[in-house]
């Protein structure tokens, strides 16, 4: 066992677990109560482990497959409206089953249905992030799916492997675990190539992996292995490593969290914080600036804290919540940049005010910080 890569698993505190349609619905025969119960048991142990509590988020497929079963449709429909109707029917069963099974394990759960727009629009992105983090803070386990009933083809995430990676990016997870109907990645599709060899470990984003992966093995799900490989690459952009493992492997989640090497591990080449800094630096354009006092500069640089409105003296430019702003000292030198939690108009009202007054000043409070340290990159001095 390679100690280093086992550490990646052992040290993962925030984990996104994705399960595919064929596993969840017993190859389309109907919701697999025993399997969902089993994952719920393991997730409860991970979420409740004293001293080593993990934050767990589930991304579950299966709405369309379960809806087809309930509607008595033997074949996956082609028409969008029929797929959407099936998803609406199936999602009821899915949510109910997870709620029941997680509650039996003493865990509270929440249903979160996301669309591509929730993740592409910066303001909605921050809202979705904030909601998920709040749920985790209250030890509620979010069960996520794409909101298939309202999205059309052009604006779809499309498959839940990708959605799992986007969620890992959104909440800066340490690890994405993709549970599927194979033991992991092989050098070719094992269903059609008996000579295919198992891949234990590789670097996420390695192009050779994309050539090994084929499409979906059944007509139940959407993804196939290629979407899983691409999901691992995407997850790695925010520093999360990915494991692809067999969903029926006994105690798979618990064993992985202990560092046991089951499945295929696709290691993220860059660390989480470094990856996030890279992302903010690379992707976003400056929209404005916040002048801050000496005390705030010392806190940002020295203790790496968030910027609170009380340290802000002046606001420049026009920006919206979620835009990138520079944080400058009184002499105009850049101290940091980061994502603003409030628009420029709101920020002007908040200058020099304690966070306890945000509600009274704006009529609501998104966050007590003007720029959260998780969304901030310190500039070189
Ligand atoms: N290189 C590969 N290694 C493993 N499985 C592969 C590979 N290429 C294609 N596959 C196929 O991908 C399938 C898993 O994807 P999919 O059916 O979408 O599952 P899920 O519903 O879990 O997302 C496997 O059953 C397998 O037939
Ligand atoms: N949102 C869809 C999932 C589509 C999908 O990606 O399925 P899968 O390849 O089985 O993970 C559903 O719930 O049916």
UniProtKB/TrEMBL annotation:
GO function term, MF aspect, one: glutamate 5-kinase activity
BP terms from Gene Ontology: L-proline biosynthetic process
Reaction catalysis annotation: L-glutamate + ATP = L-glutamyl 5-phosphate + ADP
Similarity comment text for this entry: Belongs to the glutamate 5-kinase family.
Entry GO CC: cytosol
EC number of this enzyme: 2.7.2.11
Binding site for substrate: 61, 148, 160
UniProt KW keywords: Amino-acid biosynthesis, ATP-binding, Cytoplasm, Kinase, Nucleotide-binding, Proline biosynthesis, Transferase
Chain sites annotated for binding ATP: 18, 180-181
Pathway the protein contributes to: Amino-acid biosynthesis; L-proline biosynthesis; L-glutamate 5-semialdehyde from L-glutamate: step 1/2
Occurrences of domain PUA (ranges): 288-371
Location relative to the cell: Cytoplasm
Gene name per UniProt: proB
This protein's name: Glutamate 5-kinase
Classification via Pfam families: AA_kinase, PUA
Primary localisation category: cytoplasm
NCBIfam families reported for this sequence: proB (TIGR01027)
Enzyme class: transferase
The protein's role, per its UniProt record: Catalyzes the transfer of a phosphate group to glutamate to form L-glutamate 5-phosphate.
